[in-house]
Design brief:
It is built from eight helices and six strands. It is of the alpha+beta class. It has a six-stranded mixed sheet. The protein has one domain. Bound molecules: heme C. Residues 70, 72, 77, 79, 102-104, 116-118, 139-141, 151, 153, 155-156, 159-160, 169-171, 238-239, 241-242, 245 line the site of heme C.
Length: 251
Amino acid sequence: MKKRLFHSVALLLALTLTACNNIDNDTKAISQQAENSSEAKSGEYAKIGSGAHLVKFPKDLHKGILYTTFDRGNIHENIYINSKEAIEAVQNGEEFPSDTVITLEGYEDGEIAQYLVMEKRTGWGSEYSPKERNGEWEYQAFTPNKEVRKDNIGRCFSCHAGAALEQYIHSLAAIKNYDLGKVSESNNSSTTDSIASIPTKDWKVSDISAHLNDSNSKDVNTKKASLLDDKEKAEVIEDVLLTIYLHQYQN
Ligand code: HEC
């Protein structure tokens, strides 16, 4: 069984890499077309990701709401959102309000490895091509020292565009299902009781998992093992791509 799983993962990887090549070629073909087209005015739109500097490292990150976690092998992700109002908006079927900040805190072998931040503000993204922009979201990557990490921010846009129907948030379902009762409870007591405010910096991955509510955690590897229908294929390919992406910055 294990062997079969390994084979399917290897096959998937091969397929994914082929798919990437094709995408690259397609993109080249498309940009060639755009260059040849008389309608394409150069400099009409800002380069995608050029507004990344607008996104600062989120102050008080751990005072935000830790709404979900993911595990990808030796990578553990804590995902925070900065306001209860943003969760309420989504649960009421509305869009994220301006000033929403979502942060993925990525650990590798228990050590903080990176912070990936998305922030939405009214009017952001309007200088980008409508085909490339992700609504009003901007992205930025930070090192463990909370300094801006040199990165190809365009890739954040293209991968998150896959979640365009979920307001560009891959983990939107977890926000929709988040029990806000938990937040009011912790707000009523001292902030030191809130799980979101516990400094997890020095925790080992296993400690973190042990302290989280299971229903709120998604183990991506288990998911891969049960993947077998077509419906989940796209999601799994995305998972593999993200895992590769996160591993590039291995310390
Ligand atoms: C290859 C695809 C891919 C790329 C590239 C990518 N992401 Fe993501 N991102 C995901 C997926 C999928 C998730 C959901 C978490 C998971 O599955 O581990 C996610 C989650 C996030 C989250 C938490 C909110 C959410 O959407 O669930 C933030 C914030 C984030 N990414 C920021 C970034 C930033 C910033 C970059 C670029 C520096 C980036 N991402 C690049 C696929 C990608």
